[in-house]
Amino acid sequence: MVRWTLLHAALRAWVIQCWWRSMQAKMLEQRRRLALRLYTCQEWAVVKVQAQVRMWQARRRFLQVHQAACIIQSHWRWHASQTRGLIQGRYEVRASRLELDIEILMT
């Protein structure tokens, strides 16, 4: 009877230990998934900030080039009107490109 009682106690302890190990594994997996989710959120935030900075830099460079083109055009128009004739033209700035129509009239 004592051996039977000890055997059942040992089996019950073993079952409890197995259950506890499985619970620890589940908790570890939950912590791992949470850490992965937080890491992913941080990485996406970094990617978004980098994209915004790159877009800002590209826009700033585009505006610099656009301003330089306008200055060159105005000087060229002045020079052409003083030396050869009149330059008539128009330009439109759209979201992604600069369209340019220039008509040169020689007099």
From TrEMBL:
UniProt GO MF annotations: calmodulin binding
Keyword Signal listed: yes
Signal peptide region: 1-25
Keyword vocabulary terms for this entry: Signal
UniProt xrefs under PROSITE patterns: IQ
Pfam families: IQ
This protein's name: IQ domain-containing protein F6
Organism: Delphinapterus leucas
Gene: IQCF6
